[in-house]
Each structure stands twice: as C-alpha cells, then as structure tokens.
Amino acid sequence: MISVIILGAGRSERMGQTKQTMPFGTATILEKTINNYIGSEAGKIIVVLGHQALKIKKIIGDKSVDIVINPDYGQGMSTSLIAGVKNINERTGAVMIALGDQPLIESKTINQLIREYERHEKGIVVPVYRGKRGHPIIIAVKYKAELLSLHGDTGAREIIERHPSDVLEVPVATDAICIDIDTLESYRSAVDRLGKRGQT
C-alpha cells in the first residue's frame, strides 16, 4: 500500500495569509488537494497540519484522512514529513509525499505515478514535466530511517540526491507538478486555470 503524506503545516509567509484556507473553486486550496488524493488509487492519507491547525482541521471536517498536528512546524518542512512518516502503518510499502498547496494535480496524474512505482523496481519515483522535477514523489519504506533523520527545510530532496541510481523519473503531461501556490499572483493564476478546466 502507498500511503500519502500531505504537507499542510506552513505559515504561508510569502502569501501574507493562511493559504490552506483560501477559496479554490467550491473548496479551499488544501481541501481541493486532499480531494484529489482521496479520488486516487492511494491508500491511507495523512494530512500534517501546524500553523492554525485547529482552524484548518475544522475546514477539513470529516474527510477520510488522518490528521497529524506537528507542533514543531516552524523548524522546517522536515519536521512535518517526519510527523507524517511516524504515522504510517505496517502495511505501507511506500510513502507519497505531497504538498498541500498543489491543488491542480489531478487524480489521474497521481494514479500514473502509483502505477509506475508498482511496475518498476526503483525505490523512488519523481514526476517530470519537460525536464523539470516536481511533486508528489514516492519513496519506498526502505528509506524510512533516512526520512526520519531529515533536518531543516529540505524535504526529501536529500534522499533523492543520495540515491540517484534508485530514482525513476516519470514524464507527465501537466506542469501542475511544478506549480505550488506561494504568492497572490500564483494563486490567481491557479484559480484561473481551474476555471478554464471547468472544474470545481
């Protein structure tokens, strides 16, 4: 089983407001991201919260996800990743690491990565659009100890760089894997793209 860890604990400092709760279609940015993973072939979904966790938890409501609150989120993304990894179960063969501010990544892209991981022997799967790597990434549980030893704001990049021969790059048809919503400009652009898709 592939468990998903959605990282949604940040302060959104560049945005100037809590981006997780900003409207996106008929939902919020984080809700839309979560919905895309719920609609995929992934197994257990863990959402890691930190900044304004209780407010965001209420917005998520009764979605079929496990919510983990990371009190150390201010010390970098690695702390949220570690909090998520600590909550995977024994059936998990790999973790899919997702960013909570990438609501344009559709379930079909998520499924493509899952299927490619299952078809190959590589322990790390990274989506690529026109030569540029993005998220979500998949990392086998054989790297669990390395994930738990991460520090600062690097995420899983260190592990990818440490094991280049075990990385499978998967070309995808969308640049959504490279688009995270960090500024009002990127937010407006993403909302516009959602509207052009005719999605909610």
As for the CATH topology, it is Spore Coat Polysaccharide Biosynthesis Protein SpsA, Chain A
Class from secondary-structure proportions: alpha/beta
N-to-C CA distance:
29 Å
CATH superfamily: Spore Coat Polysaccharide Biosynthesis Protein SpsA, Chain A
| Stretches with pLDDT under 50, minimum 5 residues | none
Strand content: 15-25%
Q: Name the overall outline.
A: globular
Helix content: 25-40%
The major sheet is characterized as:
8 strands, mixed
| CATH structural class | Alpha Beta
Proper CATH architecture? Alpha-Beta Complex
Compute the number of structural domains: 1
Work out the radius of gyration: 16 Å
Describe, in plain words, how this protein is organized in 3D.
It is a single chain. By secondary structure, the chain is α/β, with parallel strands linked by helices. It has helices at 29-38, 53-60, 77-85, 107-119, 144-148, 157-162, 184-197, and strands spanning 2-8, 23-24, 27-28, 45-49, 66-69, 94-99, 124-129, 132-133, 137-140, 167-171. The protein has one domain: Spore Coat Polysaccharide Biosynthesis Protein SpsA, Chain A (Alpha-Beta Complex), CATH 3.90.550. The chain contains 7 helices and 10 strands. Strands 1, 4, 5, 6, 7, 8, 9 and 10 form an 8-stranded mixed sheet that branches. The longest helix is centred in the C-terminal third of the chain and has 14 residues, at 184-197. The two termini are 29 Å apart. The mean pLDDT is 94.
Which structural traits does this protein have?
alpha/beta, 200 residues, Spore Coat Polysaccharide Biosynthesis Protein SpsA, Chain A, 7 helices
